[in-house]
Design goal:
Residues 14-68 form the HTH cro/C1-type domain. The protein is α+β, with helices and mostly antiparallel strands and 266 residues long. The protein has helices at 10-20, 25-31, 36-44, 51-60, 65-74, 92-104, 124-129, 135-138, 144-149, 161-179, 182-192, 240-243, 255-264; strands spanning 110-113, 119-122, 215-220, 223-232, 246-252. Helices cover 45% and strands 12% of the residues. It starts with 9 loop residues before the first helix and ends with a helix.
Length: 266
Amino acid sequence: MTTTPTDRGVGPLLRAWREQRRVSQLELALRADSSARHISFIETGRSRPSEEMVLRLAEHLEVPVRERNALLLAAGYAPRYSETPLDDPAMDAVRAGMERLIQGYEPYPAIVVDAMYHVQAANRGILMLLDGIPEHLLAPPLNAMRLTLHPEGLAPRIRNLREWRGHLLAQMERQIALHRSEPLRELYEEVAAYPVPEEDRSAEPAEPVPYFALPLLIEHEGRTLSFISSISTFNTPMDVTVAELAIETLLPADPATVKYLQSLLP
């Protein structure tokens, strides 16, 4: 889905991205080896940028790959980046590589999601955490945000729900600002409206653990498991689908979690 309109011309679109990134015309010109005058002429439509200039400005403004295609179209050029379905044979190597990566991470949880947080792959560590989740939340397309924050999903099992919910919503807000995606905003409004218990169950263990990042504290069969989240993306993607994939791994944050997962998923 292209979320940036293409009938306004490339100038106003580039200006909107520049203002969103809070970059002046002079600063952008210096980054792109151009002049503030030329940037001004592009934004007002007095000058038509070359294809190379559109891509250069998009790079320095950190415009997402999907939206770079929209900028090129608005400037009168063909899209540069393909959008190949993940199940296309051309994606076999990418798909197999991700599967090997998350399976190699077992017994610890790992998941692959797209720009809408739809689950594209998950390992046994994730499936273990989903035990007992109602079928309607597991129906395709499986959505990681719904699974986590829905009152019938993982939310009742998360001991530090308010903190973790705040982290996830802030993450979505950053993605909305970056991608300017209306479907993503609709998802955000949906999950942000899910009810939150008036009182959290205590998120503090009997003996406080010195975490180095906000942990996910989640119950599983009477035990409290503790994880630190890490997210990886592809470097310099040349395909929209690949650009929007993210691999999240949950690193055990204490020895008890390590021992339990290793005994459960040898």
